[in-house]
Design a protein that fits this description.
The structure holds two protein chains of two kinds.
Chain A lengths: L1 H16 L17 E4 L2 E4 L11 H8 L4 H7 L8 H11 L2
Antiparallel strand pairs in A: 1-2
Helix pairs in contact in A: 3-4
Chain B lengths: L4 H21 L4 E17 L4 E18 L2 E13 L5 E14 L2 E14 L3 E12 L5 E14 L9 E13 L1
Antiparallel strand pairs in B: 1-2, 1-8, 2-3, 3-4, 4-5, 5-6, 6-7, 7-8
The chains are: A mainly alpha, B mainly beta.
C-alpha cells in the first residue's frame, strides 16, 4: 500500500510536469550567455545607450572640431546642432 | 549575497567538525549513513502576469548524516548537490532530520538550508520527507520528497523567488 502511495505521488508529480512551459526561464542560469531572465523570458542583455546629444556619427563630428571641415565637406546630413561647426568647416573647405 | 558565503562556509565547517571531533569521542555510540540520490521535479517562479511552471534541472545529491545511539530519532548531516541538466551548478544542503521507523519502512522528516555557490549563488530553505526501505538493513532504497524555497542569490531574476517541489530516488548505506 505504501509502495502504491509513493508511486501515486510520483505519478502526480510527473503529470503536473506536463503543464510546464518548456521555454520559460525561472533563473538566470536558464538563459544563455548574453541573455537575462525577465518575466520568465530570456531577453538580450541591455546595451548601453549612445551619448545624449545624438548619434555616434554626430558625436564623432562634434568631438573633432579640427576635422569638422573635412568631415562636413563630405557629409550630406550634418545636423542642426552642427551648424556652428558646419559654418566653420565651410569657411575652411571653400575655394 | 557574496558576503553570506563566509557564513555558509563557516556553517559547513561546523558540520564537518561535528563529524571529525564527536565521531572520534563517541565512536562506540554514533552511527553514520551515506546516500546517493538523483531527482528532479517542478519549479514555480514569477511570470509576467501569473506564476510559471518549469521542470527542475536534474540534480545529484551525495549525503552524509550521523545519529547517536542514545538518540536515534535525530540525525544531522549535509549533502553535496550538483545540478547536471542544462548547466553544471555546485552547492549543498545542511540538514537536520527526525527519524521514525514504521514497520519495515523508515521515515525521515527534515529541514535544511540548500545553497548553490558556483557558478551562481542561490540560498533558500528546504523541507524533506524520506522513506527508507528496508528500515534497518545496511543497504536500502530511498525515495524523497523535497520542497525548496529560494529567496536570495544572483541566479534569481530581480524581484522574484523560486519554489521547487522535487522527488528523488537513491540508495542509502548504514555503517
Amino acid at each position: 500500500m505504501r509502495v502504491g502511495l509513493v508511486t501515486a505521488l510520483f505519478a502526480a508529480l510527473a503529470g503536473t510536469l506536463s503543464a510546464c512551459t518548456p521555454d520559460a526561464c525561472l533563473r538566470e542560469s536558464d538563459c544563455a550567455a548574453g541573455f537575462t531572465c525577465t518575466a520568465a523570458a530570456c531577453v538580450p542583455n541591455p546595451v548601453d545607450a549612445g551619448p545624449e546629444d545624438g548619434s555616434a556619427l554626430d558625436a564623432a563630428v562634434d568631438a573633432g572640431p579640427r576635422d569638422a571641415g573635412a568631415m562636413d565637406a563630405g557629409s550630406s546630413d550634418a545636423g542642426g546642432s552642427d551648424a556652428g561647426d558646419t559654418d566653420a568647416g565651410s569657411s575652411d573647405a571653400g575655394p | 549575497m557574496i558576503r553570506a558565503l563566509p557564513t555558509l562556509a563557516a556553517a559547513l565547517l561546523a558540520v564537518v567538525a561535528t563529524f571529525a571531533t564527536t565521531g572520534r569521542a563517541d565512536a562506540q555510540t554514533r552511527s553514520y549513513a551515506a546516500s546517493l540520490t538523483g531527482g528532479s521535479g517542478l519549479s514555480i517562479g514569477n511570470g509576467p502576469q501569473t506564476a510559471v511552471l518549469a521542470r527542475t534541472p536534474v540534480f545529484l545529491d551525495a549525503s552524509l548524516r550521523t545519529m547517536r545511539s542514545d538518540e536515534p530519532s535525530v540525525s544531522y548531516g549535509g549533502s553535496l548537490r550538483v545540478e547536471v541538466d542544462g548547466r553544471v551548478g555546485i552547492g549543498g544542503v545542511i540538514r537536520a532530520e527526525l527519524v521514525h521507523p514504521l514497520g519495515p519502512v523508515g521515515f525521515r522528516a527534515g529541514i535544511g538550508v540548500p545553497f548553490f555557490f558556483a557558478p551562481y549563488v542561490l540560498l533558500g530553505v528546504e523541507g524533506s520527507l524520506t522513506v527508507r526501505w528496508p528500515a534497518t538493513t545496511p543497504i536500502a532504497a530511498t525515495a524523497s520528497l523535497l520542497v525548496d524555497a529560494y529567496f536570495a542569490g544572483s541566479d534569481l531574476p530581480r524581484n522574484s523567488a523560486l519554489f521547487m517541489a522535487n522527488g528523488a530516488l537513491g540508495v542509502d548505506f548504514l555503517f
